[in-house]
Design a protein that fits this description.
There is one protein chain. By secondary structure, the protein is α/β, with parallel strands linked by helices. The chain has two domains: 226 residues, TIM Barrel (Alpha-Beta Barrel), CATH 3.20.20.60; 29 residues, no CATH class. 39% of the residues lie in helices and 15% in strands. The protein contains eleven helices and eight strands. An eight-stranded parallel β-barrel has the order 1-2-3-4-5-6-7-8, surrounded by five helices. Strand 6, helix 9 and strand 7 form a beta-alpha-beta unit. The longest helix has 17 residues. The protein starts with 5 loop residues before the first helix and ends in an 11-residue tail after the last helix. The chain binds 3-methyl-2-oxobutanoic acid. 3-methyl-2-oxobutanoic acid (KIV) binds next to strand 6.
């Protein structure tokens, strides 16, 4: 599959839905790259990969390490790197950290969470040559401030505010927006209100594409399965079954038999 560009990603608005999946390492990036249009090195890696309860302790060094691994495994796929909590509080800090991503990795773009209140940061980044993916709706990095992970778009006021967020980010130069945890009919209205692609997660199918955390969609992450996640395989059971077979064969000395020795 030919690597997408910002131009070809934008042409997918109102067209074939974009397939975005998170990736954290070269091994899975290689596997996912056969079907994904875009790989997102999400700060969710701090949870499923790092074993932490939330994304807040993710660092720039971590994101750079994992982005390089993903890019090595999937050099033919468009890659977006998440900016961790606290790394884009003001224009100077945001630009310094985004420049680190571009200088230290081959990543194609960065993602920051926030709506109209972050439009000035999006403008500063895009006007300095950084491609920016917005992220509106449920903002995992704001869960403490908001008192939990809250689904958005439950009132007309919230709907109007989400539309204003998307439009402000688009005007500031973002080339794509992720919309998370938003009522499906509202996410559809938001997608219709802008001319850049809007990629949903827990936001229904009235948008221009979908993103899922790879370990969720492969059924590998057992502690919690969000309502919006479809598990396309029971990865945890498959892995446990394989490891258990290995254990049994090691203990019975069935492995390694003559096929597996020098
Ligand atoms: O960090 C992440 O994986 C994300 C997706 C949930 C969109 O931001």
């Amino acid at each position: 599959m030919k690597k997408l560009t910002i131009g070809s990603i934008q042409k997918r608005k109102h067209s074939l839905p974009l397939v975005m999946i998170t990736a954290y390492d070269a091994l899975f990036a290689r596997l996912l790259s056969e079907s994904a249009d875009i790989l997102l090195v999400g700060d969710s890696l701090n949870m499923s990969f790092g074993g932490n309860p939330d994304t807040l302790s993710t660092t720039m060094d971590q994101m750079i390490y994992h982005t390089n691994a993903v890019c090595k495994g999937a050099s033919e796929v468009f890659v977006i790197t998440d900016m961790p909590f606290g790394t884009y509080c003001d224009e100077k800090t945001a630009l310094e950290n985004a420049i680190r991503v571009y200088r230290e990795t081959p990543s194609d773009a960065i993602k920051i969470e926030g709506g109209a209140d972050k439009a000035h940061l999006v403008r500063h980044l895009t006007s300095n040559g950084i491609a920016v993916c917005g992220h509106i709706g449920l903002l995992p990095q704001a869960f403490r401030a908001e008192g939990g992970y809250k689904v958005k778009g439950k009132t007309e006021e919230e709907t109007i505010s989400l539309i204003a967020d998307a439009q402000a980010i688009e005007k500031a130069g973002a080339f794509i927006i992720v919309i998370e945890g938003v009522k499906a009919n509202v996410a559809e209205r938001v997608a219709q209100s802008v001319s850049i692609p809007v990629i949903g997660i827990g936001a229904g199918n009235g948008v221009d594409g979908q993103v899922l955390v790879f370990s969720d969609m492969l059924g590998l992450y057992e502690p919690f399965v969000p309502k919006f996640v479809k598990q396309y395989m029971n990865g945890a059971a498959a892995v446990k079954e394989a490891i258990n077979s290995y254990k049994n064969e090691v203990q019975s000395k069935e492995f390694p038999n003559e096929n597996f020795i020098y």
